Each structure stands twice: as structure tokens, then as C-alpha cells.
Amino acid sequence: MKKTMNETSSKNGQLRSADWFGKDDKMGFVHRSWLRNQGYPDDYFRGRPVIGICNTWSELTPCNGHLRDFAEVVKKGVIEAGGFPLEFPVTSLGETIMRPTTMLFRNLASMDTEESIRANPIDGVVLLTGCDKTTPSTLMGACSVDLPTIVVPGGPMLNGRFKGECLGSGSFNWMVKEKMLVENYSAEDIMEAEIGVARSAGHCMTMGTASTMACMVEALGLTLPGAAAIPAVDSRKKVMAQLSGRRIVEMVREQMNLSKILTRQAFENSIIVNAAVGGSTNFIIHLLAIAGRIGVDLNLEDFDKIGSKIPLLVNLKPSGKYLMEDFFYAGGLPVVIKELKKYLHNDAITVNGRTIGENNLTPVCYNQDVIATVDDPLQENAGIAVLKGNLCEQGAVIKPSAATPELMKHRGPAVVFETMEDYHERVDDPNLNIDENSVIVLKNVGPVGYPGMPEVGNVDLPEKLLRKGVKDMIRISDGRMSGTAAGTVVLHVSPESAVGGTLALVKDGDMIELDVEKRKLHLDISDEELQRRKAEWTAPTPMADRGYVKFYIDHVQQAHLGADLDILQGGSGSEVTRDLH
Ligand code: FES
Fold it and tell me: Residues 147, 126: contact at Cβ < 8 Å?
């Protein structure tokens, strides 16, 4: 049964958890008695807000490997404020290890989070997040329950170091093939880079998806001010975690549920901030899914309408030069938010009870090479562009700040790869008919087709073109791209090829026109020919016939809707109508 989104954790002064712990009957005995085996004094069960610390710690998620310690710090804060902290694990998604892609499991992890919160005597939630999908998955789940919730982003790693220079995690691996072929890097060089790039706890320290997600939640008002950029190993991160533990207890008492913070204005703020920081294209797909859970009307076109005219202020890799540690020392996101004042909804409320404008009145920028001003930005009109055309009837996206300006308007012949395996097999074939004017088309890497929409859209260029010194080419797919990658890459083509989108019908040699300024992506064949190919098209065999993957394929929505499962849209609130007896 659907519940309204505005149920609070504390009705008429009565805590939600009191329905478990506040009863003097048999079930009250059962709920309290077993928990006492962990040594909680009786007063913990009598009127203290219960704070669920939702932990995505896992040794299989290296970026979140420090969150076990962080949970203890959060607990300190909760206890100081008079709460009762109870930590619980949820499915964690390790970007660099999970196959075929963490995105396949984002929605599963969100279900785990949602049901874990709802089914337990929790009044308020702290989300401990880090690696790319661990932020959106837990937040999506929390939105569908809508209790008071605060996010503690785990923080980026320290800057990578290699050959006396800074090295960005994520970004370097996209260059390995080029470095070995063109700059003659040895296997020892690559090994040294491998070791030097991940030298502390934390997530990727480029403005990749994890940093983008941390900035997203801060801009949405879901963290304490300044939380996103603090490195994982900086002592101030632990202070932030402790203060967040204190604050969530107050939020429960103030009945400050997620839906009070996550308004349409908050989402618009987040889109504006994402443009200014040069955030990942994955931001789009996750923000759409989060909006769908909390019931805010947001669509793909909003990202272009609201964000595309925003200037780029943050000079971080992959678009720029620096890394998250530099961003923190320069003043971090508060400086960006203050700088963006004229674009933002400054009266949007945040988790500390103050508005985003009030929170970010006084930050000082300590390095304008890292954070530029609105009057003298790194680039005008930096947000994400949403393309339309017969090749992407429901839309596709491109990140202009990561693209090559000369390729933003281009017409070239398609070189088609039917699958990722087909690409690997043929891309380095010296006889492949391809040059720098060609347009690489990669099919069947969308939500249904792969399945799970992996980050493969920024495929490496063919070896023979790299050797020629070609640095970038247009690449088009229904997949995603890592936030740490760059290039003139058209992504999230919707509808995807596996469900019969026009992408499925492209053939080698077809002319494709990209015009980013006009927001156009066009397959230059006649309508009659398009219809003929459509009639001949047959759907590929589904990639699974059982289990979660089959369920995912049957229910996943297309990229322009956020790739959530259709049955997970919206929320069920926090009420549980039946007891366990
Ligand atoms: Fe975890 Fe990049 S791999 S954040």
C-alpha cells in the first residue's frame, strides 16, 4: 500500500522507534531483550532517537574501506546528542571490481537500503558513502522511506603522485594504451603509476563520479557545509562525521524529513553546481532516479535548460588540471556555491536547518587557479548538453567541457561495432576502414542491452590512429562514460539499441551529423530507408533468463528516465502496518 511521502519519524512527539522499543508487552520485551545482548543501558530504549547508520563499508569496495572507522565516529556524535546509534550494512558497490558493472546493481542496493530502513526501528538515517554508486543507491532507497537523513561522504584520496607529478585516479587508466603506444611507457612505468595513484583511503580524487556525487549531495543540502571535498584521511573529515552524528539527532526532533530538503529548488541548485564543477555525466542518470523516488518532477531537458549556461569554475581533472585535495585547500564547494549566488535558489533549506545561502556566505577562495570566478570563468556555458534527433528520439547527452571544440560540429561516416566484444575484436585491426573523421558507433551497451549500462562509451581509439597522433574522435553509444574520462563522447542514447532505438539501425558508412550548438544528433538516411531497416530489425536475445538480472531487464527504464526500475519509482513511506508476530 502506498503511503504519503511526508510521514515523519516522530508523530505527535512519539518516536517511530517507540513502536518497537516503547511497548511494555510481549513484543516490546522481544525487541529490546535481544538487542541488550550488545550491552545497551535501559535508557537507550526510552525516548532516545534511534539513528540508523547505513554503512557501505566493504573490503570489496576499496573507496569505502575506511567507513567502518567512520561509523564509530558518527556514533560518538549521535550519543553526545542523546541518540541511540545502530549501524547496519547494505549492499556495497565497488566500481573497480564488480562485473559486469556496478550500475546493474545500483537499483538492487537501493532496494536493500530502502527495506533495511523501513523494516527496522529507525528514526533518522546517516548514509556513509564514497565510491560512485554508493551515494545514489543509498539515497534513492532513503528517499523512498523519507525519514530525516544526512549524508556523510567518505572523501577523496590524497592526490596521486607519479614521476614527480600529480596523477588523477581514474583519469590515468584511460591513457594507459596511449602512453604505452605513443610515449613508450614501460611496464615498470605503468606499475609505478598503479602504485602511486591510490596512496590513501578514499574515493577517486578527480572530479569523477564519486566526487561529483559528493558535490551533488552537498548542493542538494544533504550534508553539513563543506563536507564534499575534505580528503578521507584529513582529521576534519572525522570532525564532519561526528558533527553529522550530532545533527541527525536534532533533525529527528525537528522532524526534518528528506522531502523537506529535497525540493525542486534543491535539485535545480544541484544541476547548477554540477555544471560549475564540471561534474560527471553520470550525475544526470542518478539525479533523475533520486528525483523519481522523492516525487520531484525533473526531466532530461532540465539539465540543459538549467545547467548549460552555467560557467565552469573548477579546474579539476578530467576537464582541467587539479585534483580534489587541491580543491579542498582552495576552499572547496562552499566557495563555488558562494560564487554561484546569482544563479542559485539561496533560500533552499539544508540539513543544518539553515539555507544554502546562509551556509555559504563567507568562504574565501585561496587559489583562483583551482576555483575561478563567475566573472572570469574557465569556460562559459559549461553544463551538459542534451541532444535530440532521429538517432536519439528521447535524448542523448554530451559534456562539452570534456569534448574537443573542433568536433562539436561534425559530419562523418559511421564505423559500427555491434557489441563491446565486437569492438575489442576489430578495433585494432590494421584493415579497419576508419580515420579521424569517422564516427565510432557502439551498440548494445544500454540498460537492457549489456545489461546495466556500463561505462564504456569512451572507448579507446584504434591503435593505428593513436600512432598517427589522433587524440579524440566522436564516439556514440547507449552506454555511460566514467566521470574520470574525457572526449567528444555522446552517451545515454535513448531509446537504446537493444529495445529497437534508431541506434540499432545504423550501418557502416551511414553519415552522422553532430551539432552540439544546435543540440542535434542526426542519422542522415531517408525516412523510407529508416522504416525499412526498422521493419527488418529483430531484438537481441535477452542476456539473462533468471534471478535479479532477469528482473532488472524486465523492469529497467531507459536512460532519459534515470534507469531506475519502474516498480521502484516513488516511495512507500516509513510506516510498517504489520508486526512480526
Ligand atoms: Fe571508487 Fe573511483 S573507483 S570512486
Answer: no
- CB distance 112 to ligand 1 below 6 Å: no
Q: 176 pLDDT exceeds 80? A: no
Could you tell me the pLDDT band of residue 485, with boundaries at 50, 70 and 90? confident
- The pLDDT-based confidence of 458 (bands split at 50, 70, 90) is very high
| H-helix or E-strand spanning residue 239 | helix 235-253
Cell 535545480 maps to which residue?
268
pLDDT of residue 6: 39
What letters, b where the CB count within 10 A reaches 16 and e where it falls short, cover 176-185? eebeeeeeeb
Predicted pLDDT of residue 213: 98
| Ligand 1 atom closest to Cα of residue 95 | 3
Is residue 7 very low, low, confident or very high in pLDDT (cuts 50, 70, 90)? Answer: very low
The single residue listed with the C-alpha cell 534513492 is: 140
Q: Distance from the CA of 265 to the center of ligand 1, in angstroms?
A: 29
- Among residues 369, 436, 445, the alpha carbon closest in space to that of 404 is found at 436
| Mutation to probe ligand 1, out of 132, 211, 215 (largest number of atoms < 8 A from CB) | 132
pLDDT band of residue 3 (cuts 50, 70, 90) is very low
The size of the chain, in residues, is 581
User: 492, 287 in Cβ contact below 8 A?
Assistant: no
Say how many Å lie between the CA of residue 393 and the centre of ligand 1.
Answer: 32
In short, whether 455's Cβ falls inside 6 Å of ligand 1 is no
> Is residue 294 within 8 Å of 5, Cβ to Cβ?
yes
- Measured in Å, residue 134 CA sits from the centre of ligand 1 at 10
How many whole angstroms separate alpha carbon 261 and alpha carbon 218? 12
Residue 8 scores a pLDDT above 50 = no
What is the residue extent of each domain of the chain?
Answer: 16-261, 385-543
| 101 CA from centroid of ligand 1 (Å) | 13
pTM of the model: 0.95
* Run of H or E residues at 17: none
Torsion of CA 395, 399, 404, 409, to 10 degrees: 30
CATH number 3.50.30.80 given to 385-543: yes
* SS3 of 506-555: CCCCCEEEEECCCCEEEECCCHHHHHHHHHHCCCCCCCCCCHHHHHHHHH
Write down the residue that cell numbers 527504464 correspond to.
Answer: 557
**Is the CB of residue 134 less than 8 Å from the CB of residue 70?**
no
Give CA 217 to chain center in angstroms.
Answer: 10
Cell numbers standing for residue 151: 549524508
| Contact 208 CB / ligand 1 (< 6 Å) | yes
Phi, psi of 556 (to 5 degrees): -70, 140
Question: Best substitution site from 95, 197, 216 to test ligand 1's pocket, by max atoms within 8 Å of Cβ?
Answer: 95
Matching fold, domains 16-261 and 385-543:
no
Tell whether ligand 1 has an atom less than 6 A from the beta carbon of residue 266.
no
Best CATH choice for the domain 16-261 from the list 3.40.50, 2.30.30, 2.120.10, 1.10.3470 = 3.40.50
The residue contributing the CA closest to ligand 1 atom 2 is: 204
Q: For 212-229, what is the mean pLDDT?
A: 98
Q: How far is the CA of 55 from the centre of ligand 1 (A)?
A: 16
CA 320 to ligand 1 center in whole angstroms: 18
Strands 50-55 and 124-129: what pairing? Answer: parallel
Nearest residue to 158 (alpha-carbon basis) of 276, 263, 49, 237: 237
